[in-house]
Amino acid sequence: MDDIHIRITGVNKMFASGGRDLVALRDIGLEIPRGQFICLLGPSGCGKSTLLNAVAGFAPPSSGTITADGKPVTGPSPQRGMVFQEYALFPWMTVEQNIGFGLQIRGVARAEIARRVGELLELLSLADFRHRYPKVLSGGMRQRVAIARVLALDSPIMLMDEPFGALDALTRRNLQDELLRIWAELKKTVLFVTHSIEEAVYLADRVIVMTYRPGTVKRDMMVELTRPRDPSAPAFNALKRELGQLVMEE
Amino acid sequence: MGKRNWLEIVAGLVVPGVVIAIWHWVTVKGLVHKSVLPTPLAVLERWREYVLPAHPFSEQGGVWWRWAVSGELVGDALGSLYRVAAGFLAGAGLALPLGLAMGANRAVHAWCNPLVQVLRPVPPIAYTPLAILWFGLGDKPAVFLIALGAFFPVLMNTIAGVRQVDAIYLRAARNLGAGRLTMFLRVILPAAVPYILAGARVGVGTAFIVVIVSEMIAVNNGLGYRILEAREYMWPDKIIAGMVTIGVLGLTIDMLMNRLNNYLLRWHGGAEH
Fold this sequence. Notes:
The structure holds 2 protein chains of 2 kinds.
Chain A: E1 4-17, E2 20-33, E3 37-41, H1 48-56, E4 63-68, E5 71-72, E6 80-83, H2 95-105, H3 110-123, H4 139-152, E7 157-161, H5 169-186, E8 189-194, H6 197-203, E9 206-210, E10 217-222, H7 234-248
Parallel strand pairs in A: 3-8, 3-9, 6-7, 7-8
Antiparallel strand pairs in A: 1-2, 1-4, 4-5, 9-10
Helix pairs in contact in A: 2-3, 2-4, 3-4, 6-7
Chain B: H1 3-28, H2 40-51, H3 64-68, H4 72-104, H5 106-119, H6 128-135, H7 139-163, H8 167-175, H9 180-217, H10 223-232, H11 236-264
Helix pairs in contact in B: 2-11, 4-5, 4-7, 4-9, 4-10, 6-7, 7-9, 9-10, 9-11, 10-11
């Protein structure tokens, strides 16, 4: 692969915990090509969210480097839009205002914001809710708004921290399908954290299985199944079983 | 309105009705002398006198609405409300920017907090002698005391409001590209509004308490002045009429604050985020 979008080299992350140093990440190295859908998979506490936060620029690694488009990551940037598990919508803004906020900050003209927001409302079937506040929306709807808010930035990289973890199974599958549709259409590089093996196999081009404390890359595996994927297909289940064993060992 | 609501209203009237009935009974039977506790009807009559203009309407007197509000009670209520409004606006107006600065900036907090903590437990009423010494008699010392009463609730809540802003909003905003000013105006400030409004409501309540006390000391109109004056004339019916007015006015202000609260916080409530 020549077009590496995100490059993670020799990343370590230490936390001080009760006077001792806790090694959260040890010697992580990853090269993520442009347009790849990559899942970080592992049990809670394996450091996958820590790695995602480092890529987002919220918490820099203790050592090692992360570059995006060849430039070192030094802080959060709209170039790397983040979707949080807790949605993190601004409750005092309507759906429309939440989605347009990033554009507004950037000083985009009002008419252009309205046009972009209108498109995203259509894309995520949110048009009927544009003037509502987040409190009246269901979890699935809120996460749609959060995705639209990141898409509005038009960032080439989407970071997703267990975004569907709090949703019921049906809503979850719907949003997974929508995410895949958007990804196929907009060709973003997606770094997606999950602890669900099924979710990883359903979504990803490539799955990174991480070890538990310290977090290291245990297995780097391409998912060769054709899309759209059928979770009841034997090949799907075989892969699930294989990944399941790797995760269980942790 | 459903049947249930009507029942609740009726239920709510039972206890006051019983209290008034007992009051009526003890006074009419002469168990308590009427110079100590007048009958409810005497209070009502006195209240009517207190509300209505002193003289009948005459063409020479000017426009009718001026006549209609020329009653003593209207003047007193407006006087008290004016002081509450002026004092509250002054107190809250100073507390809000200071609270925002103290909440958002560690250095400002470190500099100002010790003095705030020492002054906060001093009841506004304890400033009365100083207020009179500094401002003499009249509206000025009263407004000063009311401003003090409103200042601290608004200040403390504003500080708390700014400090409790959920870190996830800050992260999301930084990720969306918010700079410091945007962060403050569009994220921290709105997130703190529920706390600030709760502080404002307490502040108005305190202002309303302080206005009555300060009118007993420093000025010669207003509801607080009037009930003290009534004591000097030995008019318990007027004292109670004034107290009822104070209660009704306080309740009205609180209801209006609640309305404003609900409007400004229409986004608030339910699950977080």
